[in-house]
Structure to design on (142 residues):
């Protein structure tokens, strides 16, 4: 049932243990003026502590401090590079060009096939769908 923890000015070194985030009742934390380093743990009450809880620890990084951890920055840049590589040229214009290069010629070829009446079974299906008589179409084709 620990509500307040003040470990300021104790010459503590190293990283803040992740297990301390499991103290759900902790409402105030002061780790200032120590020699702590590494990433500030995230979770539960730790997300509510302000910058002044960590003042004087030059090795600390991460939220809520404005100093980002190098590991996070490297991971973030790697993720951005992968996204840029995949989505860089994949826009709606690319999709339209891709479909246009295939669909427009297909419609033209289909229209020419219907005009020529080849193949007959295909012309017959289209003629029935349009409500035309097959014989009329055969007479026109000759």
């Amino acid at each position: 049932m620990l509500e307040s923890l003040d470990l300021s000015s104790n010459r503590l070194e190293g990283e803040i243990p992740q297990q301390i985030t499991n103290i759900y009742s902790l409402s105030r934390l002061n780790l200032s003026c120590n020699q702590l380093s590494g990433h500030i743990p995230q979770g539960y009450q730790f997300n509510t502590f302000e910058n002044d809880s960590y003042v004087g620890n030059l090795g600390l990084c991460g939220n809520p401090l404005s100093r980002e951890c190098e590991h996070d920055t490297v991971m973030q840049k790697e993720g951005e590079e992968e996204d840029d590589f995949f989505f860089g040229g994949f826009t709606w214009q690319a999709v339209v060009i891709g479909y246009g290069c295939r669909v427009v010629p297909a419609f033209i070829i289909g229209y020419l096939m219907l005009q020529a009446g080849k193949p007959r079974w295909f012309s017959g299906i289209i003629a029935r769908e349009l409500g035309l008589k097959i014989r009329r179409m055969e007479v026109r084709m000759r």
Observations:
- The beta strands are 4-6, 13-14, 28-30, 35-39, 59-61.
